[in-house]
């Protein structure tokens, strides 16, 4: 079975990567899809985010990276995906994600949503938190895949000392 892991991934974090790696062991194929949301102004371009994810998942042979716009369930239908994966960090995530899952089920009853609990070491992580730390010159190399910290430093005109 094929699973879809949608998100903005602005940028991808180690929490995202953990979910991708774990789901790649559960499903024959995992499609990581970057949403092009006209209502948001991402820090990284779509092309940059796709490249970041491709680099971070290059060791996973059953992971494909793509982008989409519109409804996630419609993209799931177009790609023959039967499961939408969502990560949960806290109870507040659950309330929001459950509402989206119910909405998606009402639109596409053939597409299920599967919630995966975020691994404890990554339970505090979000792209927003990572960007905020990076914006003020904080160390983020332990929060994002290799290379993303340097891209964040360039984005915010910061310099990280070599390790």
Overall description:
- The chain has 163 residues and is α/β, with parallel strands linked by helices.
- The chain has helices at residues 14-26, 46-56, 72-78, 91-107, 127-135, 148-155; strands spanning 2-7, 29-35, 63-68, 83-88, 112-117.
- A 5-stranded parallel β-sheet has the order 3-2-1-4-5, sandwiched between helices.
- The longest helix has 17 residues, at 91-107.
Secondary-structure blueprint:
Layout: E1 2-7, H1 14-26, E2 29-35, H2 46-56, E3 63-68, H3 72-78, E4 83-88, H4 91-107, E5 112-117, H5 127-135, H6 148-155
Parallel strand pairs: 1-2, 1-4, 2-3, 4-5
| Global outline | globular
Task: Determine the strand fraction and express it as a percent band.
Answer: 15-25%
Strand order of the largest sheet: 3-2-1-4-5
Largest beta-sheet characterization: 5 strands, parallel
Q: Tally the helices: what do you get?
A: 6
Distance between the termini: 41 Å
What would you report as the Rg, rounded to the nearest angstrom?
16 Å
Q: What structural category do the secondary elements indicate? A: alpha/beta
Poorly predicted spans: none
Element-level helix/strand string = EHEHEHEHEHH
Total E-strand runs: 5
User: What share of the residues lie within helices?
Assistant: 25-40%
- The overall average pLDDT, rounded, is 93
């Amino acid at each position: 079975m094929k699973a879809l892991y949608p998100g903005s991934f602005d940028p991808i974090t180690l929490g995202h990567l953990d979910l991708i790696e774990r789901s790649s062991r559960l499903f024959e194929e995992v499609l990581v899809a970057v949403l092009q949301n006209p209502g948001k102004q991402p820090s990284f371009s779509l092309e940059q985010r796709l490249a970041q994810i491709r680099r971070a998942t290059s060791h996973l042979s059953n992971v494909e990276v793509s982008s989409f716009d519109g409804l996630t369930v419609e993209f799931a239908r177009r790609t023959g995906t039967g499961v939408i994966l969502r990560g949960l960090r806290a109870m507040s995530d659950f309330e929001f994600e459950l509402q989206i899952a119910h909405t998606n089920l009402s639109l596409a009853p053939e597409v299920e949503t599967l919630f995966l609990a975020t691994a404890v070491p990554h339970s505090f992580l979000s792209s927003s938190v990572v960007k905020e730390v990076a914006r003020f010159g904080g160390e983020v190399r332990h929060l994002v895949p290799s290379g993303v910290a340097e891209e964040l430093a360039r984005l915010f005109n910061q310099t990280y000392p070599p390790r």
